[in-house]
Amino acid sequence: MPAIVALPCMCASLRRAARALTQLYDDALRPLGLRATQFTVLQALSLAGEVSQGELGQLLVMDSTTLTRTLRILSAQGWIENRPGKDRRERWLRLTSAGHHQLKRATPRWERAQARLRSRLGDARWHELLKVSTEVIGGILESAED
Asked: Which fold has domain 19-111?
C-alpha cells in the first residue's frame, strides 16, 4: 500500500477519509444488498420517525439528487414508504415493517464495522473524531447562515 500523503486541503482530506469509511461500511453491508448510504437513510428514518424529504436531507446534509436516488432504491425494495404532503412538492417518509426488518438484519454487520474501526482508533480517538465531525458540520452550517 502506498504511503498516505497529508493533503493541505481540509475538503480533500475529509472527502478522502469519507471515501475510505464508505468503502469499509459498503464491504460490511454488501452481502445484504445494502450500501452505506442506504443503511444511513434507514437508520435515520428509524431514529426520526416520519419526516419530510427536505428534513431528512437537512438531517443527513445530503444533496437532493443523491437523496432522491437513494430513496427511489429503498422504496423499490419496499423498505420505505412516502406519502404526499400538503402540496405536490412535499413528501413524507417513514420505514415500513420490511425496512425495520432490513435495518435489524444489517445492524450486526454495521456494528462489526464500527467495532473494527473503533479498535483501530482507540476509544479516546473514536469519541474525539465523532465530536470533531459534529463540530465541523455545525461550523459549516452556521457559516452558511451568515
From this structure: Arc Repressor Mutant, subunit A (1.10.10)
